[in-house]
Amino acid sequence: MSKVLVSDSIDQAGIDILSQVATVDVKIGLKPAELIEIIGEYDALMIRSSTRVTQEIIEAGTQLKIIGRAGVGVDNVDVPAATRRGIVVVNSPEGNTIAAAEHALAMILALSRHIPDANASVKRGAWDRNSFVGAEVYKKTLGVVGLGKIGSHVAAVAKTMGMKLLAYDPFISTERAEQLGCQLVELDLLFQQADYITLHIPKTPETTHLINATTLAKMKPTARIVNCARGGIIDEVALAAALKAGKIGGAALDVFESEPLGESELRSLGKEVILTPHLGASTAEAQVNVAIDVAEQIRDVILGLPARSAVNIPGLGPDVLEELKPYMQLAETLGNLVGQLAGGRVEVLNIRLQGELATNKSQPLIVAALKGLLYQALRERVNYVNASIEAKERGIRVIETRDASIRDYAGTLHLEATGTLGTHSVTGALLGEREIHLTDVDGFPINVPPSKYMLFTLHRDMPGIIGKLGSLLGSFNVNIASMQVGRKIVRGDAVMALSIDDPLPEGILDEIIKVPGIRDAYTVTL
Ligand SMILES: NC(=O)C1=CN([C@@H]2O[C@H](COP(=O)(O)OP(=O)(O)OC[C@H]3O[C@@H](n4cnc5c(N)ncnc54)[C@H](O)[C@@H]3O)[C@@H](O)[C@H]2O)C=CC1
Ligand SMILES: O=C(O)C(=O)COP(=O)(O)O
């Protein structure tokens, strides 16, 4: 049974899902050295933002197949290190969107009305109404930095509160911003004009210390800044200095450069500063959402299925995956088959997407075909995550072509592998929704479902040959489950595809090739 380590606090709904397929150990608060010591036993690791999954931990996780982040940000995971090791990293891109957006909105209102300090003062026994006179957000300008999932929801709600919206996000269109009622502007303009600035961007090298002494100096002295995205986007020392000097009006922070927040000037500031301990995603609803979302993906990967929100598999979003899953299976099977027919080292893989596939995203299919192709060399070490890197490192050139014309099937996939031992090709299609059929091998039309053990021969189409092959296999106690011949012309060259019940015994291929009329034979395990 697989083993999953849960090293941060996760909702029980996730643990219940994992327990269906694995032994689940919940160990919260492990020190890095303790995690390194035990991670080697586990197939999957489920975390939130508290566990830092470093390269050292990934390297110690020799059995790890998947790291599941029950939340959005994967900046606490060394994703490149995981990718190199073929470990899938998944997250829950939408499970806590509303929770984080509502926290940012709560921060905006709490800052405006001094709610935390007013509350603390009443609880201390005071009744001080004069110290807590606030400001309205109505008709004020909100600058949204990062108009993604969370930023968009913040914008939508802020709009209904009567705020004027500016947004900065270099990766979204003016139309999208307009749909949300936002005016897309340059960052400097946003800094200059906003009464409130809310950050909803990932932490990247470009966004680290985006808010610093220079950018803070561009803001209105009354501006209030909210960070419910990531610590480190704001230079906290510069922020504390700007607040103290009255260069900006206030700040509400949920995330910090170093968490838990240690010694900090920010703690000593008054009602203009609100600090929460990374609570953006901490609602009952969001925790159920992210736990289920990520646990299901871990379960799927343990069961050998692809994950729907892998951050390190290019182009494999949930919508794409749902549509392409059966075709990815087809691509993988064909890749595995053509790799075995080609034998030796493959140098070029031609992939032709035909019919309805021609208009689809090709990247997941290429990755799946490469995974299949490399299976003989790498076995379980190759997966959707590292197939492209492994192929590149082996010098396999991928050429993709598309042909939208529809032939016998709605969509077909054609793979041709050229390597040190020659060129071979296979074509396949789906029958109904998901039944794989081989429709062509080396240019000869056939129509067979692939099976675990197969034998292919290239032979002359002449009387008696099928009988001879049948008897030969019989003499080696090989049971034939099905057999089909594909030929282009009568008595010309032909291909025979046989499904057999067991692997072909040693030495029998040499005997098959000796049968008069048989030119070549290939055994394949799928
Ligand atoms: N405080 C908390 O507990 C939580 C924090 N988060 C954090 O919130 C942030 C946003 O999350 P989502 O909205 O789900 O992500 P998202 O991926 O939907 O949106 C991020 C947006 O930022 C934009 N962006 C990227 N680089 C940018 C740059 N240099 N300048 C301006 N815009 C840039 C992208 O184009 C995208 O539209 C993430 O950092 C995430 O980790 C998310 C959930 C909870
Ligand atoms: O989802 C995110 O990016 C978050 O920051 C939430 O973090 P958490 O899961 O609450 O530790």
Automatic annotation (TrEMBL):
Domain ACT stretches: 454-526
The record's InterPro entries line, in alphabetical order, gives:
ACT-like_dom_sf, ACT_dom, ASB_dom_sf, D-2-hydroxyacid_DH, D-isomer_2_OHA_DH_cat_dom, D-isomer_DH_CS, D-isomer_DH_CS1, D-isomer_DH_NAD-bd
What EC number(s) are associated with this protein in UniProt? 1.1.1.95
Q: Does the keyword Amino-acid biosynthesis apply?
A: yes
- What molecular functions are annotated in GO for this chain? phosphoglycerate dehydrogenase activity
> Which enzyme class, named as a word?
oxidoreductase
A Pfam family: 2-Hacid_dh_C
Keywords assigned: Amino-acid biosynthesis, NAD, Oxidoreductase, Serine biosynthesis
Q: Identify the pathway.
A: Amino-acid biosynthesis; L-serine biosynthesis; L-serine from 3-phospho-D-glycerate: step 1/3
Q: Which reaction does it catalyse?
A: (R)-2-hydroxyglutarate + NAD(+) = 2-oxoglutarate + NADH + H(+); (2R)-3-phosphoglycerate + NAD(+) = 3-phosphooxypyruvate + NADH + H(+)
State if Transit peptide is listed as a keyword: no
Q: What does the record give as the function of this protein?
A: Catalyzes the reversible oxidation of 3-phospho-D-glycerate to 3-phosphonooxypyruvate, the first step of the phosphorylated L-serine biosynthesis pathway. Also catalyzes the reversible oxidation of 2-hydroxyglutarate to 2-oxoglutarate.
Q: Which family does it belong to?
A: Belongs to the D-isomer specific 2-hydroxyacid dehydrogenase family.
UniProt name for this protein = D-3-phosphoglycerate dehydrogenase
